[in-house]
Amino acid sequence: MLARRLSRRDPSRVLDNATRPGPTAARLPEADASPDRRRYVVVCRGPHCRERGALPLRTRLVQLLRQAPSARLVGYACFGQCERGPNVAFYPDGVWYGGLSDAAAAERVVRHATGQEPLAEPPLVLPEVERTEHLRNIAELVGTLERDARRRRRWWWPF
Q: Is the separation of the CB atoms in 136 and 142 below 8 Å?
């Protein structure tokens, strides 16, 4: 079912800036709290990244991003770059960074996500097939999150 939905979607429309190589991915947009300009910090939740420090990174990012309406934290199952973990991706930029296990990594990630200062670490280079697949999955996840945020809440009881 997921594959059917993805095949009907026009990837150039969904991922237009995220899939373009070159300076578009490195450029930081101005911080803007509107949903169409919101940036997403996607943290790997895989077991190898957790062993390498993703859980403390994610915990600190939760605290820091509460004060940043222009960025939102999202968990992702696994990016497949386990030896370089913990890994973080920025969406819609489509840029991955790894090895963010030191104490100040969360602060650097937040500064990058809010457009204050780019990360000094070189970005990870994922194989194009994996990169495209992860970006499609992240785009679907972000779409679901945004749709749920706009949905009017109704009370429902199972009995």
A: no
